[in-house]
Specification:
single chain, 253 residues, alpha/beta, TIM Barrel, eight-stranded parallel β-sheet, 8 strands, binds pyridoxal-5'-phosphate, pyridoxal phosphate, PyrdxlP_homeostasis
Amino acid sequence: MPTAPPGIPARLAAIRARVADAARAAGRDPREVRVLLATKTQDPGTVVEAVTAALELAAEAGDDRPVLVGENRVQELVAKAPALAGLVAAGRLEAHMIGHLQRNKVNQVLASATGVQTVDTLALAEALSGRCVRDGRTLDVMVQVNVSGEESKSGVAPDEAVALATDVAALPGLRLVGFMTIGLRSDDEAAVRAGFARLRRVRDEVGSSGAPGTAAARELSMGMTGDLELAVAEGATVVRVGTAVFGERPVTR
Ligand SMILES: *Cc1c(COP(=O)(O)O)cnc(C)c1O
């Protein structure tokens, strides 16, 4: 039996407590917010150990949903897939792409991921859709929105997000499950929150549009180690956590 390196289970428990506190402070049910493990730079063994610990904690809390992991790079997603395949096949794990995705990597991503959170162009969505239709499968996707307007960040502009999401939702082979953003990097909490609120309004607008395929678009993937309380306060249903679980990453990446 692999044992998690000392620290990871305790860190996971602390994150769950942080999320639960933030949810209760916002008058929300803590179970509405899932923790996605952002596993970039971690080796496959560490990821399996963290997922195992997360499943145990969830089971203790009576939560039998699969654990979510997210990868930023196609190369890492593919490299870790064999170690995670058993958990995915058993329905215990969902592996999401959370980094920028190029169209020419679509086949590689589809071989290893159960979801893509970073759809930001119709061309990318069409490439994913075409491949899924050919394979006879359905892929969960989110539209990534650049709520902060920072040029370094991927994502569709907020003003264009509703139109893109509506188009994506209508494509065969894709199931639009929600929206994803990376928050503004700033100490100005009000500004960070405003970005998260913007994503929520995009979701609400799309969800209430009645357009084909939009009914399932409920998720808000927003908030990381440094800003998850603000995201939960604004309605996050998935927070993506790396540093708080695995420690600081090497500065080179
Ligand atoms: C790395 C990463 C995270 C997690 O960030 P931490 O600050 O380490 O919690 C979340 N989302 C994305 C897209 C990331 O690349």
